[in-house]
Design a protein that fits this description.
Elements (H helix, E strand, L loop, with lengths): L9 H11 L5 H19 L9 E5 L7 E5 H20 L6 H23 L4 E3 H11 L1 H15 L7 H21 L4 H29 L4 H24 L23 H5 L4 H19 L1 H11 L1 H6 L4 H28 L10 H11 L4 H24 L5 H19 L17
């Protein structure tokens, strides 16, 4: 008895080939996005902004020196660039792929000035302050992304960054407060507080390594447990220790770099910061150097991609993962110290506000690379700074919605707007030695 295979009609063949011919690419998604934004700008702005309105973009610290920008003309130029770049990006011309990429990248950078020009139409806005604030608020996000990168490059999923940052913030400020009460100098107390924050992050990361590497617990569950543990532990310490102490403390002092801090625009943003802010750039550069130009980085990437092959070459897979996870926690602890020792001078329950999860999204946005994650962190930092600027300029948008913007961007990024992000092949998979 024979069975005949179901017949395939030409219509089915044509339908399958039609579907298979459509591929969703990063350039295509961004092209459609820019077409929609450009069409909205070209159609809506002329009816809402007069042609004689200008915006003063200032670049000095006092906000008095700058250049006038015709608001409507500049907005129309950017809107047409969005339309042109988006349409060109959808054209099936493979040999112009690089041109498409750079045009869309330029459109991406134009988002910053065009938003500032539109929201401050008829007034003035300080570009230097906006850049400075974007870099400042992106500090813990970028450092959290570096923390995630160290762990996940070795094959350990680390969603406990939020808990590590919160623990570092609490223990660093706790050490600073107790030492200050015992008449230690401010500088010494702050330095020891930073050290305790780093140590606390490393210790709680060791717990994550112990559960996920040694006992091979599900790494998502382990990270979730640590996040919950951090919330409970830090809330207890704040209520029983810090509330009864004089917790109003000073923050780390500014350390302007002589000469460089006087450079227009970039000087105040890059070279007029505080210690942990400067350490962010150092950590990003050092992470890139170690991951791609040292033996340890090569072994880490090998362990994250193919631990069995790495083991056959004599690499101790679990030891490598242990060390990288602890380094991850130490970086996250330093990021937590930014909240208490460098920014607020106090500790509040859950003051990290989900920034550890946003840091993970920045790492994914950057495709598990240091400079890519740095760019992702800047994107989220800019969204936070933009919301603050909206409130400062009195834009009639509910502040609750503005506070949602970083999290909405996180959802969009994780939904695949950036294209296919490829994690290390062994990420999240416990290693079983054969």
């Amino acid at each position: 008895m024979t069975t005949s295979s179901p017949s395939i009609t030409p219509a089915v063949i044509e339908r399958r080939s039609w579907r298979e011919s459509i591929t969703i690419t990063r350039i295509g998604v961004f092209s459609i996005l820019f077409i929609l934004i450009g069409a909205f700008m070209v159609l809506q702005l002329p009816g809402n902004i007069s042609g004689d309105v200008s915006t003063q973009l200032t670049f000095d610290a006092t906000g008095t020196q700058g250049i006038p920008v015709p608001t409507l003309a500049f907005s129309m130029f950017v809107g047409l660039s969005y339309l042109g770049g988006g349409i060109f990006g959808l054209l099936p011309i493979p040999r112009f792929k690089r041109v498409k990429f750079w045009w869309l990248l330029l459109n991406g950078f134009l988002i910053i000035p065009v938003v500032l020009v539109i929201i401050a139409a008829g007034g003035r806005t300080n570009v230097t302050v906006m850049l400075q604030e974007s870099l400042r608020v992106s500090t813990p996000i970028i450092m959290g992304a570096m923390a995630g990168l160290w762990a996940e490059r070795s094959g350990v999923t680390n969603i406990a960054i939020e808990g590590m940052m919160l623990t570092g913030a609490c223990f660093g400020f706790l050490a600073y407060t107790l030492l200050s009460q015992n008449n230690w100098g401010t500088g010494e107390s702050q330095a020891i507080g930073i050290a305790f924050a780093v140590l606390a992050g490393g210790l709680i990361a060791a717990l994550h390594a112990w559960l996920s590497i040694t006992f091979k617990t599900n790494q998502i569950v382990s990270g979730t447990v640590i996040n919950i543990l951090a919330i409970g532990l830090t809330s207890y310490l704040r209520r029983d220790v810090l509330v009864n102490a004089d917790t109003a403390r000073g923050t780390l002092a500014l350390l302007p770099i002589p000469g460089l801090s006087e450079i227009p625009v970039l000087g105040p943003a890059l070279f007029n910061g505080k210690p942990i802010f400067y350490s962010m750039f150092f950590i990003v550069g050092l992470t890139h150097l170690i991951m791609y130009y040292t033996r340890w980085g090569l072994r880490t990437r090998a362990v994250g991609e193919n631990p069995h092959a790495a083991d056959t070459l004599g690499i101790n897979v679990n030891r490598n993962r242990w060390i990288n996870v602890i380094i991850s926690g130490m970086i996250a602890g330093l990021a937590g110290a930014w909240y208490t020792l460098e920014t607020t001078g106090s500790f509040d329950d859950q003051m990290t506000s989900g920034q550890g999860f946003i840091a993970l999204a920045a790492m994914i946005f950057g495709n598990w690379t240091p400079f890519g994650a740095f760019g992702g962190g800047l994107l989220f930092g800019f969204s936070v700074a933009l919301g603050q600027r909206f409130q400062f300029l009195g834009v009639p948008i509910p502040p609750q919605f503005l506070q949602m913007v970083p999290y909405l961007i996180t959802i969009v990024v994780l939904a695949g707007l950036i294209g296919k992000a490829t994690p290390p092949k062994a990420d999240g998979i416990p290693y079983e030695k054969e």
